[in-house]
Amino acid sequence: MKCIITGLGGRGLFWVEQLRKRTDCEIVGFVEPIEGSRTRAINEYNISAEQIFNSLDEALENVQADFLVDVTPPAVHHEVAAKAFAKGLHVFGEKPLSDDFETAKKVVEQGKAAGVKHMITQNYRFSSQPRTTRPLIESGLIGQPGQCDIKFYIPWADMAGTHYVTEPFMLINDMMVHHFDLMRYVLGQNPESVQAITWNQPWGWHAGDAAHAIVFKYADGLVATHVACACAVGSQTGWNGDWRIEGPEGSLEWKSDGTVSHSHLYRVENPVQENVEMLEVKEPSQAMLDEFFAAIKEDRQPECSAEDNLNSLAMVFAAIQSAKEKREVQLSEL
After folding, report:
1. CA 294, 139, 225, 128 torsion: positive or negative?
2. How far apart are the C-alpha atoms of 233 and 4, rounded to whole Å?
3. Alpha-carbon 248 to chain mean position
4. Do 124-281+314-333 and 2-116 have the same topology in CATH?
5. Within 10 Å of residue 303's Cβ, how many Cβ atoms?
């Protein structure tokens, strides 16, 4: 299949490298209006200047493609998607789907109307810890989960002047969509409500709140908590966060070294405390591309489709609304 890549910044060049490894794909065009990024792509990544266009409109007029890789800022994802859909192109888009929930819903409807595949790169769920944990929960190893607690302590986005540190609620808006999507994948359900409290630490470098305590509630009684400090200067969790999922038959825990442990020590004849066998998985970017290509070939919706991803975005925007309005928010309000 042939593709166009929009955006030749750091992340765009990452996808150039990933797609070049494949034998089932040819990159036929690039879109990058910034001269410095164009020069870097030409000099360091051996990209032909003739293949780089200043606008997506120009690229679509000059090359024939089957899909588009969208590595543009979230505020313009909907514009890129609309132009791709109009040409019948499938879209493999960087998260988040949009920085506005109403816009995201419209994009999903446009993609469905165009009959194309639209996948969002929620790469965290393709790593070994979530891929190992979900089937363990589905097997009933710890019984029906009643509580899930996640801790995230990372010196996140220490990049002066970027939107990550100048705009409000960017930790939730940009980073937490990863964890909220992980929660949906691992727990196998969507929450009904959320209550969020956010704040800043005096030594932090973010203008927007970069610490929080968030509680999600589910229809079956499950409660999930997420506690974070994005200006942590001491010991760190992994990027997945440290998880503990508690059920009536024991617990599952994620460790910073990438392992998962299972324990059942109380009210049991034979106590258990051991690491579980980790599922071998592909590198997440390869797994995502494999899934996207397979969905196109098999004419089905991909995992992390834009439509499914609305549920992860709903958790993000409901949490932000809760923090702003200082109340519990039902996700059905969005």
Report:
1. negative
2. 40
3. 30
4. no
5. 18
Environment class of residue 28 by beta-carbon count within 10 Å: exposed (0-12), middle (13-18) or buried (19+)? middle
Distance from CA of residue 20 to its chain's centroid? 23
Mean pLDDT of the chain: 97
Q: How far is Cα of residue 50 from the mean position of the Cα atoms in its chain?
A: 33
Percentage of the chain lying above the pLDDT 70 cut = 100
For residue 210, is pLDDT > 90?
A: yes
Place of tokens 């969790």: 237
* Dihedral sign, Cα of residue 141, residue 238, residue 120, residue 175: positive
Sign of CA pseudo-dihedral 141, 142, 148, 152: negative
pLDDT band at 256 (very low <50, low <70, confident <90, very high): confident
Per-residue model confidence as pLDDT tens digits over 193-204: 999 999 999 999
Please say whether the beta carbons of 167 and 244 come within 8 A.
no
pLDDT digits (tens, 9 = 90+) for 79-124: 999 999 999 999 999 999 999 999 999 999 999 999 999 999 999 9
CATH code of the region 2-116 = 3.40.50.720
124-281+314-333 CATH pick, 3.90.190.20, 3.10.560.10, 1.10.274.10, 3.30.360.10: 3.30.360.10
Q: What strand order describes the sheet that includes 211-217?
A: 272-275, 260-264, 250-254, 242-247, 147-153, 223-229, 211-217, 193-199, 329-330
Burial of 122 (0-12, 13-18, 19+ CB in 10 A): buried
3-state helix, strand, coil in the chain (%, to 5): 40, 25, 35
**The predicted structure's pLDDT at residue 178:** 97
